[in-house]
Design a protein that fits this description.
This protein is mainly α. The protein contains one helix and no strands.
Length: 51
């Protein structure tokens, strides 16, 4: 069995790309949650005012 050679610079670059992807996904999900929260508040407010 051969030893595996690891290029730490490539690993670091791959991890940085993944962190960037996760940061973007987190921002998109956060914006979606904020929009949903606003819609729920609007619906609850409309229900209280109309009911």
């Amino acid at each position: 069995m051969q030893d595996m050679t690891v290029d730490t610079q490539r690993i670091i670059a791959a991890l940085r790309r993944r962190i960037d992807q996760l940061s973007y996904e987190n921002a998109v999900l956060s914006a979606a949650v904020d929009q949903q929260r606003e819609q729920i508040v609007d619906l609850i407010g409309d229900g209280e005012n109309g009911g």
